[in-house]
Amino acid sequence: MTFTIPIDNGDALKNAEADSQRTLYPYVTGTSIVAIKYKDGVLMASDMGGSYGSTLRYKNIERVKAIGKHSLLGASGEISDFQEILRYLDELVLNDNMWDDGNSLGPKEVHNYLTRVMYNRRNKFNPLWNTLVLGGVKNGESYLGMVSMIGVSFEDNHVATGFGNHLARPILRDEWRADLSFEDGVKLLEKCMRVLLYRDRSAINKLQIAKITEEGVTVSQPYSLKTFWEFQAFHNPTAGAQGSW
Amino acid sequence: MFRNQYDTDVTTWSPTGRLFQVEYAMEAVKQGSAAIGLRSSSHVVLACVNKAQSELSSHQKKIFKVDDHIGVAIAGLTADGRVLSRYMRSESINHSFTYESPLPVGRLVVHLADKAQVCTQRSWKRPYGVGLLVGGLDESGAHLYYNCPSGNYFEYQAFAIGSRSQAAKTYLERRFESFADSSREDLIKDAILAVRETLQGETLKSSLCTVSVLGVGEPFHFLDQEAIQKMIDTFEKVPEEEEGEAEVAAPAEQGGGADGLGDQDVAPMEM
């Protein structure tokens, strides 16, 4: 039970101080999530970084979590809002389990619940500053969807957030197949994460890959990717721009 | 049951631990015309007897669609039944909107039962005077529940409520063990035969009964009169053509005017 002292500053749109009661900008943020459906389920990759503006401040943040028996949630954006969402979902799953009646929330239900939550917050001009990726398997069917902070929601065979949209998805569009094995899926995700590591300044070289199948969820131990910096172009980066202004 | 000094308020216990108002509400269910439900592992059939106030009026609607995968048949105070059906539709659609997924029927009946219980514990309310047979699907297949004015609910393979429902229950008790594996057609046939039992002598016609079906891959819908009549024709032999078998066939017609004689002491608000 959280204990907050209520402050009523009035209408959030007209009164300047009232803004302190709603989200204006994110502070500690996670970068991209990349996720794909594969033969047995869904694979989701993220790094473990939490940036404080341009500082890579936190290096042990798990941005992918299991939800219930059938789903996996990954988030980019404000980490505290992600933690708040995890609390909402915790309550949701708890109430679902309390029924104890053989029915359980699948990934589709969780995705739609989150869509409603995100959209409602957006309508109140107080968004949860996240882009969420929801993947799961239930009754043999794989599910992968995404919700943005303004409530835009859709499903696809492969999704990515933030920089991943620009750097990873083109790779996935070319190389994704429905019958990817686990090893091939991981290789594909690592390829995407390596590009992000090179090009996204908020990415760190410590990632986790989570897998969800009919049997359940496994989140890998954190590991790092091998990188190569000896490209000729890096040796003398300003070779083509000597003395120019 | 006779009047006593503990039956004025629903919030008054009797010395023997009974709430008479709740029991009186359950009596109201027994006065309504019969409603029958049965289920197999994949389908639920709800059927009821159509009773009209008079020959001039149309019959009361007693079976309601709650959602594609849930239907309800009522017996007792139909106004209460209508209001509860609206509540059920509301719960169902709210769930669908939030989760894009059908509300499991087992959860709906618990909400309904909790709502009924509230009325047994407030001095300014009265219990709902209607029994509901709720048929629907959830992840574990087809289910049939009976919701009582007392706030209790029970799951059944087959059940009948309302007036002369005992005759239908006797019929169902003989046959229920085969229902789980019944085909859809056999299930409907059994429902119509159970309805016939409650008519006690009147000829079974499709205009006298309403039948609805729902199942896995089949959304809730009513069977039209033709389909019901065709089914009736398969087992109800027409007396003019089969004189020799009149004894074996379903009870012969006893005149169309025998309808409704025993029901003149039924309150007009109950159907």
TrEMBL record, chain A:
SUPFAM superfamilies: N-terminal nucleophile aminohydrolases (Ntn hydrolases). Its main location: cytoplasm. Transmembrane segments: none annotated. PROSITE patterns: PROTEASOME_BETA_1 (PS00854), PROTEASOME_BETA_2 (PS51476). Keywords: Cytoplasm, Nucleus, Proteasome. CDD domains: proteasome_beta_type_4. GO terms for cellular component: cytosol; nucleus; proteasome core complex, beta-subunit complex. It is found in: Cytoplasm; Nucleus. GO terms for biological process: proteasome-mediated ubiquitin-dependent protein catabolic process. Component of the 20S core complex of the 26S proteasome. The 26S proteasome is composed of a core protease (CP), known as the 20S proteasome, capped at one or both ends by the 19S regulatory particle (RP/PA700). The 20S proteasome core is composed of 28 subunits that are arranged in four stacked rings, resulting in a barrel-shaped structure. The two end rings are each formed by seven alpha subunits, and the two central rings are each formed by seven beta subunits. The catalytic chamber with the active sites is on the inside of the barrel. Non-catalytic component of the proteasome. PANTHER family: PROTEASOME SUBUNIT ALPHA/BETA. Belongs to the peptidase T1B family. This is Proteasome subunit beta. The gene is BnaA09g15380D.
From TrEMBL, chain B:
Component of the 20S core complex of the 26S proteasome. The 26S proteasome is composed of a core protease (CP), known as the 20S proteasome, capped at one or both ends by the 19S regulatory particle (RP/PA700). The 20S proteasome core is composed of 28 subunits that are arranged in four stacked rings, resulting in a barrel-shaped structure. The two end rings are each formed by seven alpha subunits, and the two central rings are each formed by seven beta subunits. The catalytic chamber with the active sites is on the inside of the barrel. This is Proteasome subunit alpha type. Signal peptide: none annotated. It comes from the Eukaryota. Belongs to the peptidase T1A family. Residues 238-271 are annotated as: Disordered. Transmembrane segments: none annotated. It is found in: Cytoplasm; Nucleus. Its main location: cytoplasm. Residues 6-28 form the Proteasome alpha-type subunits domain. It comes from Brassica carinata (Ethiopian mustard). GO terms for biological process: ubiquitin-dependent protein catabolic process. Pfam families: Proteasome (PF00227), Proteasome_A_N (PF10584). One of its GO terms (cellular component) is nucleus. InterPro entries: Ntn_hydrolases_N, Proteasome_alpha, Proteasome_alpha-type, Proteasome_alpha1, Proteasome_asu_N, Proteasome_sua/b.
